[in-house]
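Me: Here is a favour to ask of a fellow structure person. Could you put it straight underneath, so I can go through it closely?

Assistant:
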Amino acid sequence: MIKALIVDDSAVVRRGVRTLLELDGCIEVVGEAGDGEEGLQLARETEPDIVLLDVRMPRRDGLSIVADLAGGSRVLMLTFSDESHVVREAMAAGATGYLVHGTFDADSLAATVRSAAAGMAALSGPALVAMMGSGTPTAPTAHERGPKWGLSMRQSEVMDLISQGRSNREIARELFLTEKTVKNHINQIFTKLDATNRGQAIAAWLGTAPQ
């Protein structure tokens, strides 16, 4: 079972998210918190696999606790906030994914929580747009970004697929590699990008990490 903690200042939202998650037989909600301070305390007590975290809350907001939570759990931002700088700051701080309310249903939420708990990057449409920036044709290609970070051509291809939210298995299939080889590439990529998870790596790769 995947242990999930919901941190949101709206009791209605918490109840709705709990209901959606409990429809999935693989996810157990181990607690709910109404603000960031309470969320940190509950995370220490329940040791969840993943924390579903809102941005704007009293006492301490979501952005201020992402890094602390990410030290022991995956963090999936689940919020109405879709401002580009908020998305980028959350991902750079260590969030595994970012979902905006209204962009998912029960099945997709549960699937995203399972993927995020396994370390897969998860971005809903508005968040992906924010991470990609303008998306203009002049944006750097993978092979143009790679040399900046000292990545090989293959590592650049792997990182580009990571930024699209692909799993290790999907990357291996597309690049005709074994999953073990993909994992080795990712470990080297994280070292070169000074990242500890996919969210931070994506932020660095796309040039959206806060300066």
Observations:
- The CA atoms of residues 2 and 27 lie 5 Å apart.
